[in-house]
Each structure stands twice: as structure tokens, then as C-alpha cells.
Amino acid sequence: MRWQGQRITDVDESALPGMENRTGFLRTVTTPEFAGMTFHEVLAKSALNHVPGPSRMPFQWTINPYRGCSHACSYCFARGTHTYLDLDAGRDFDSQIVVKVNLVDVLRKELRRGSWKHETVALGTNTDPYQRAEGRYRLMPGVIRALAESGTPLSVLTKGTLIRRDIPVLAEAAQTIPVDVQLSIAVFDEELRAAIEPGAPTTQARLDTVRALSDAGFRVGVFLMPILPHLTDSIPAIDEALTRIRGAGADHAIYGALHLRAGVKPWFMQWLSQHRPDLLPSYRALYPGAAAEAPKAYRQWLAKRVRPLIRAHRLEARRSGDDTPARTLTQPAVLTSSAPTAQPMLF
Ligand code: SF4
């Protein structure tokens, strides 16, 4: 197995709740190098996930090396998926990480199939491929190489500064396939950032990563999303964000208002009650009942203030998900490839 031979200082043999009898479960690992984290190593049956259609997403295929995410964003829409594993969508999502240790081998087999049409594959659509676990398991270099060698375009979206490790691999891949790279940076007040994304790299570290990727020749996009009502949606806050995004060398910006799906809403509201209880009535009004999206009027109001600022900062505006149609990801292969445009409202 890929992980055999790695130094593991403490192994907890207890099975992942709910997975004791599932084929493919290997073992549960804890190690002092990743204090507070538990990794559940599994054998994946498949690597490429087909996006169920019809979809707003500009891609049909995704790869997720991990389930759960140590970046621990309070607003993370993927939280609910952890309950499928009999884990909770809160602390467990942040710290109980499922690792598909055989991902690259499975992916290579799938890419060799005659039926594979080499459509763009998106990484980072569900959980972050450059979260802390990637420092241990190093799955992404193999994924990138496998896609490049098969002639499959790829798109990466991350909050993880660990992507800097893979800049040479991404640059090599971009010699033969379109490679799209985007950083997710939603909060530019560091105190708020630390409270709402406690496991993610600092805003400045992510901006430095944008700079490093830009210096390496990539046209980097920044996901300025989710924009949080009353917290990050003021004109000065958006202006500061775009100033720093542009200053870091980003090529384009994608924005969007907060989504609160059913699986994440209780956790986000709990966070809000602890950190900004004064905003609870307003959020309940904006996201009543099962509503996942802010009202159209709010999204239009947001578009009217963000779009002019994006233009003023000479950043190309990309789809917010509110009012601009999706385009395709396909572009000719160049080192500075930044094919894509639309993305789902993920981060
Ligand atoms: S929003 Fe992205 S980076 Fe944050 S916890 Fe979810 S998957 Fe991880």
C-alpha cells in the first residue's frame, strides 16, 4: 500500500464509526505531527465522480481525495456529507478525515478507459485537496501527473498554501493541458478569518500563494466568496479585499453571497450565536426556514456594489452564480492557462 513504510507513531485500530464492516476500510491513524486530527484510510472504488446533470457547474467530473476538511470553515456547505459516515457535520467534519489512499492508482485505471473523453476534471469542489492531510499523504502530485499524462484538463480550487509545493508539478502539467488555479479567499479581516475559518491559512498567506502562482506564470483567480451579510459586504471591506487580491497578482475574481444549505445552517448559526449574536435576527430573516440562498434582492444589491469595484480594480469579473451564465472551462493549453470561468458556489 502507498502508506506502508511511513512513520506512524501512534495507530488507533478502532474503526471509523459506521465503517467497521465496509469493504475498503483500512485503518484509523493518529499522529503527533497532526495533533487533533484522525485520518481514516480507505480504498476508493472510483476516483472520478460524475457531476449529476443538469448542473450549473462548468465541469462534469470531479476528484475529491479527502472527505472532511481541516480548514474548518463555519460556512462550509460540504459539512452535511459527513453525516453519511455516521460522523457529525461539526467537529468531526473538521478533524475526522477520510483519506482515499489508493486514489492515484484507481484514477490511472479510469483514465485508461477507452470511454474516457478527457473532459475537464475539477479538484476542490467538495473538500479542499490541499488541506492538512495532503501534507502527509501527498496525493495531489500523482493526481495532477495522471491527468496531465492522459491529456485531461484540470482545475484546482483551494484555500491551502500547500499548493505552493506543487507549483513545479502544475507548471509541468500546464505544458500539455489547460491548468486552472484558483485560491479561495473570503475574509480579509484576520480576526474574523481566524474565528470563521480557524483551520485555514491566514489571508496574507493565501495572498502570498496567489503571488507565487502568478510569478510561476499562472493566471490565478480568487474566489471572493462567500460574502457574508453584515460581516464582509460593506463597500470598504470589498474594496480592501479587491485591492489586496489585485496587489497579489490575481487575474480575475469570482464572488458570491453566502449559501446556507440544510447541512451547514445549524452549525453556522451556532457559530453566529457565539461570535455575533446581534446578527442572528438578520440572518434568520435572510435565510428563513430551509432557504439556502440569500434573497434575490440581496444578491442583486450585492452585485451592484461588487461588480463596479471589480472593474475599478481591473480584475476580470467571473460569474457570481447570481446573474451571469456559465461558460466552459476549455481553453488551449498554455503555461499561463486559466481557462475557466464559472465555478459552483463552494467556498
Ligand atoms: S469551505 Fe472549503 S476549505 Fe473550508 S472547510 Fe469547506 S472544503 Fe474546507
UniProtKB/TrEMBL annotation:
Q: Where is the composition biased (Polar residues)?
A: 327-341
Domain Radical SAM core intervals: 55-305
Molecular functions (GO terms):
iron-sulfur cluster binding; lyase activity; metal ion binding
- Could you tell me the superkingdom of the organism this chain comes from? Bacteria
According to the record, the residues making up region (Disordered) are: 317-347
| Keywords on record | Iron, Iron-sulfur, Lyase, Metal-binding
Tell me the InterPro entries matching this sequence.
Elp3/MiaA/NifB-like_rSAM, MJ0683-like, rSAM, rSAM_sf
Q: Which Gene3D superfamilies match?
A: 3.80.30.30
Repeat keyword on record: no
Protein name from the UniProt record: DNA repair photolyase
Report the source organism: Microbacterium pseudoresistens
Q: What is the lineage of its organism?
A: Bacteria, Bacillati, Actinomycetota, Actinomycetes, Micrococcales
